[in-house]
Amino acid sequence: MPIRREFVPRYFFHVTHKRRELDREGYELPDEHAAWKEATVTAGHILQGLHES
């Protein structure tokens, strides 16, 4: 019986604002909807940090 391996996509979130920050590790997420949620939450945190500085 062949070995069945589950494929979990890896998403990378690169950020550019004054400088470019590359996501070299990425996130293993189940699908594009989870990736979108992660991206929007992360963007919100970044924007809050810009406002606070």
In short:
The protein has 53 residues and is of the alpha+beta class. The protein is built from one helix and four strands, in the order E-E-E-E-H.
Sheet with the most strands: spatial strand order: 1-4
Can you count the beta strands?
4
- Find the structural class using helix and strand composition: alpha+beta
Write down the overall geometry.
elongated
- Helix count, per DSSP? 1
Distance between the termini: 58 Å
Low confidence ranges? none
Structure description:
This protein has 53 residues and is an alpha+beta fold. 40% of the residues lie in helices and 19% in strands. The chain contains one helix and four strands. Strands 1-4 form a two-stranded antiparallel sheet. A hairpin with a 1-residue loop joins strand 2 and strand 3 (19-21). The longest helix has 21 residues, at 32-52. It starts with 9 loop residues before the first strand and ends with a helix. The model has no long low-confidence stretch (mean pLDDT 87).
Give a topology summary.
Blueprint: E1 10-11, E2 15-17, E3 19-21, E4 27-28, H1 32-52
Antiparallel strand pairs: 1-4, 2-3
Top keywords for this entry?
1 helix; two-stranded antiparallel sheet; 4 strands; alpha+beta; two-stranded antiparallel ribbon
